[in-house]
Amino acid sequence: MDTTYASSAVKALPDAPVLSIxxxxxxxxxxxxxxxxxxxxxxxxxxxxxxxxxxxxIMLQNYARSVIEVTVTILSFDGGLLATCCNSITLALIDAGxxxxxxxxxxxxxxxxxxxxxDLNSLEEADLSFITIGVVGxxxxxxxxxxxxxxxxxxxxxxxxxxxxxxHRLKQLMNETVREVGTDLLSKKQ
Amino acid sequence: xxxSPAERSYIYDSxxxxxxARTDSRKPTQFRPLKATCSFLPNSNGSSRIFTADGxxxxxxxxxxxxxxKDIGELIKVDVDIQGQRxxxxxxxxTSSILxxxxxxxxxxxxxxxxxxxxxxxxxxxxxxxxxxxxxxxxYTLYSLISLTSMGCYLALKSTRLPLLISTTxxxxxxxxxxxxxxxxxxxxxxxxxxxxxxxLLFVVGIVGNNVLVDPSLEEQQVLEHGICVGYSNGKxxxxxxxxxxxxxxxxxxxxxTIFKGIDMVRQIGGVVxxxxxxxxxxxxxxxxxxx
Lengths: 190, 292
What we know:
The complex is a heterodimer of chains A (190) and B (292). Chain A has 190 residues and is α+β, with helices and mostly antiparallel strands. Chain A has a single domain, classed as GHMP Kinase, N-terminal domain (Ribosomal Protein S5, domain 2), CATH 3.30.230.70. Helix content of chain A is 44%, strand content 22%. In chain A, the strands form two sheets. Chain A has a four-stranded antiparallel beta sheet, sandwiched between helices. In chain A, strands 1-2 form a two-stranded parallel sheet. In chain A, a hairpin with a 5-residue loop joins strand 5 and strand 6. The N and C termini of chain A lie far apart (45 Å). Chain B is of the alpha+beta class. Chain B has a single domain, classed as Ribosomal Protein S5, domain 2, CATH 3.30.230. Helices cover 28% and strands 26% of the residues of chain B. In chain B, helix 2 crosses helix 3 and helix 3 crosses helix 5. Chain B is elongated and about 70 Å long. Chain A: This is DEKNAAC103633. Chain A: One of its GO terms (cellular component) is nuclear exosome (RNase complex). Chain A: Belongs to the RNase PH family. Chain A: InterPro entries: ExoRNase_PH_dom1 (IPR001247), ExoRNase_PH_dom2 (IPR015847), ExoRNase_PH_dom2_sf (IPR036345), PNPase/RNase_PH_dom_sf (IPR027408), Ribosomal_Su5_D2-typ_SF (IPR020568), RNase_PH (IPR050080). Chain A: GO terms for molecular function: RNA binding.
């Protein structure tokens, strides 16, 4: 785990909660059956990125001296791994009643020639350069960004602005679902 | 969770009495409530999700591959992955070996046969999403998992669909690789509706005094004297039939009549369970996976 980051968190908040994120990739998730070792480096990397992102989103002061354990199981994989994990963790945290400053929604944006493409599938991901961005609520603040390919610098801005628009739409959809489920739960209680 | 001596003796006395009174007022032949759905994984040939009230959740996927072999033993591979446990932990290995054996022993090979040389190989991957902390240190885990995962396998196998074979099934003279139809609409069921073959279901039966109870709960298993694991398929009792140490305290001898009583009970309820699971397997997939 990233020790430098942990030490800075300690300085800010002495009893900060421990957030642990575990990503589980069962062999049947992808099209071709392939077994991944439990300590897969790629997944460990992703979980660190997500951990950093959510440590900025959860209201840490409400959860002093506690552990928040998040387990993500990938049931079917077709691109946008990090983005999907981020969105599902946001929803799961809301479902668990953990206070967040706002939604974090993430999406992948790729570029083909001059065209920016939103939400690539795994075939597209294999061939195109892409970037994953996560946006806080309805703002333009990026909470998460991951780029592992070469991108022409003059296109990056266009990509990010398309991504932000996509994230805002996602936030709307997620918000609707959360409210639907919430009303449903409330009606059952009465 | 450990019971106090007083609780233990109360539960024991109510279980051993001629009018069995179980802690959750079930009948001796009654299971705890289960929920299940089928064929919701788009990347698998068959899948099932089954979960109990006490928080165990099991996702099973069946993937098929074409294999050139004559060895029947390697046609079914079961792989169990339990959250929070190592892959080579006792629990994972024992569960997967019991399941593999039970499925392979009663397998109808004609369902997997493509041609004289080629067979389908089935990869059955089981993920247990969460183990309640109460269970983690107890022998109970394995036994509650056995019956849950076997039902998961049953549902997943029942909902497995395979592409239509369009090449000939006879390749004795001509060497021919099997070819399949591209049209997913014309897929076939791995186990056709009118087939005689059903995958094995495993039942865990607890024995206390002269009474037998199916699907003992965590409280009950702490006072049981013994247990048996019984396989059931198509109206018959099939292997494995093994004695399991359900009890965490001493445990006593078992009358052989009681064992037969347990087996009879499985024969009685097996058909009902099969029917109930078949109904779930036939149901149309739910809304959320129509999105795929």
